[in-house]
Structure prediction request, 270 residues.
Amino acid sequence: MGNSETSATNRDNWIIHRTGGPVLATAVHAGHTIREELQPYLAADDAELRREEDPLTDIWASAAPDHMLCRTSRFEVDLNRSRDMALATKPENTWGKRIWRESPPQEMIERSLAQHDRFYALMRNWIEDLIRLHGKILLLDIHSYNHRRDGPYAPAASLASNPDIDLGLTELNHDRFGSLVGVFSETLSQVPCQGRNPDVRGNVRYPDGGNWPEWVFAEFGDDVCTITLEYKKFYMDEWSGHAYLPVVEDLRVGISQAIEAATQELKRCR
Prediction:
């Protein structure tokens, strides 16, 4: 795995780039496509689906030397949920929102769950390979979140509880990787975004990391430093879907520099 390898899998609509690490990033909610056979069962329209997805997070994930970008919507298969919840058809399991008009036939659901199986099998092998090469790795799990849920013209959510970038730091050994987290967070906050330094804080919005980082920690323990990044959607209009490209570009510079600094610090973690 010393040479760079890029592949786009037609079956699963993923983009996979492997160079040998030691930093691996995933954007499992970046996608928007849903298989044609599932679309007649949807109740939510295109804009509603996109509002609950994580647009453009694949741009930041691609800053890592190794990355996996998912082009499939989280509503076809949610790779950050357990298998039994990866295609949730009841509103109580989708934040009260009616995504599905009715549940798709079980054979269609099973095709989605097979993607979930392939993802975790792929990532197990990939992470094992990187650990064999480096002894320890940094995994960045990249997402975004809404802060204007009351409507396009209503006030945005409070700045006090909604940082520009919320770092999820619950699925790692802080004794081993605390210095890396500090370097990564500090660098991320010091790279200006349209004339100001972004507000970067840890564990503000979410009490856990979701199934994907929890699985990584359970399977690989102290060999992987997993950081979940939740970008507030100040980089776009979450109601219209329009992106603010200068903000997106500045944030990519920020994560690129943070990855570079964290990679050097990772070598010093014992």
